[in-house]
Specification:
Blueprint: H1 2-5, H2 9-20, H3 26-38, H4 45-49, E1 54-62, H5 74-77, E2 84-86, E3 91-93, E4 95-98, E5 106-107, H6 109-112, E6 118-128, E7 132-139, E8 143-148, E9 151-156, E10 168-174, E11 177-187, E12 199-205
Antiparallel strand pairs: 1-4, 1-6, 2-3, 5-12, 6-11, 7-10, 7-12, 8-9, 8-11
Length: about 220
C-alpha cells in the first residue's frame, strides 16, 4: 500500500501479487484483488482460489419427492463420457460446461433450465503430477454427493440452506495422473423465488487451503 500511495504502480502491483500467493483468508484475497483491479490489473480469482471450472454435465434425471439423492443413476456406476442414458424427459448425454463465475459456481440451471424435482451430475478430469493428500472443498444449498475416482467421499440430503464457500471439506487422495471428480446435485420441488438455485462450487486445496491445480493441458471432453 505504501508503494501505491507513493505512486509507484509497478512495485505496488508486484507486492500485491506477491501477497496473493501467500494469503489464504477469503476476505484478504478479495481485498488484494480489489486493489490490483484498481491498478488496472486482471485477477483470475477462480485460479487463485483453486476452483474447478471445467466440467462435463449430464441430466436431468428424476428427483421428484426427493428421490434423486438415494437413486443410483448410471454415472454413479460407470463414467462413460460418450454414453447416452434415459433421463427424466428423454435421452441425455454429457455436455461441456465452463463456469465463468468468480466463485466457481456451477449452475445446472444454465445447461438444463430452471427445473424442479430433478437430479444431475458433473464430472471433472483433474490431473496430478504426483500422488498427494488434498481437500475437496464444496459449497451448495442443494442435496449433493461427491466421488473421487469412483470412491464415495460424502453427501448431504438438505435443500436451500445458506450456501458458503468451503462449506464442506472432504479429505481425499489424488493419484498420479488422471483423476475423476464426480458431483451429484439434486433440486427439490419448492417453487419459492429463493429456492431457484441448483448449483455447487468445488475447489481442490492442500490441508492449509493452498490451491492445488490440475496440470492438464486440455479441457475435459476436448477432442
Amino acid at each position: 500500500a505504501q508503494f501505491q500511495a507513493a505512486g509507484d504502480k509497478a512495485r505496488a502491483v508486484f507486492r500485491f501479487r506477491q501477497s496473493l500467493t501467500f494469503v489464504r483468508e477469503v476476505d484478504q484475497i478479495d481485498g488484494i484483488a480489489k486493489q490490483l483491479r484498481a491498478l488496472g490489473q486482471t485477477v483470475d480469482l477462480p485460479r487463485v482460489f483453486g476452483f474447478v471450472s471445467q466440467w462435463k454435465v449430464i441430466g436431468p434425471f428424476d428427483g421428484v419427492a426427493r428421490k434423486g439423492f438415494a437413486a443410483v443413476y448410471p454415472p454413479e456406476e460407470r463414467i462413460d463420457l460418450e454414453a447416452e442414458y434415459e433421463g427424466k424427459s428423454g435421452h441425455v448425454r454429457w455436455q461441456g460446461f465452463v463456469s465463468t463465475d468468480e466463485r466457481g459456481v456451477v449452475s445446472m440451471n444454465k445447461p438444463f433450465g430452471a427445473l424442479k424435482g430433478v437430479t444431475a451430475y458433473a464430472v471433472a478430469e483433474f490431473y496430478a503430477d504426483k500422488p498427494r493428500a488434498v481437500e475437496l472443498r464444496l459449497g451448495s444449498q442443494n442435496a449433493w454427493k461427491v466421488w473421487l475416482n469412483g470412491k464415495f467421499l460424502f453427501g448431504m440430503d438438505e435443500y436451500h440452506r445458506n450456501k458458503a464457500m468451503d462449506q464442506y471439506r472432504m479429505n481425499a487422495w489424488l493419484q498420479s495422473g488422471r483423476n475423476l471428480i464426480l458431483v451429484k446435485v439434486c433440486q427439490n420441488e419448492q417453487t419459492d423465488d429463493w429456492a431457484g438455485d441448483w448449483d455447487f462450487q468445488l475447489r481442490v486445496c492442500d490441508l492449509l487451503g493452498t490451491p492445488v491445480h490440475s496440470i492438464a493441458t486440455t479441457k475435459p471432453g476436448a477432442k
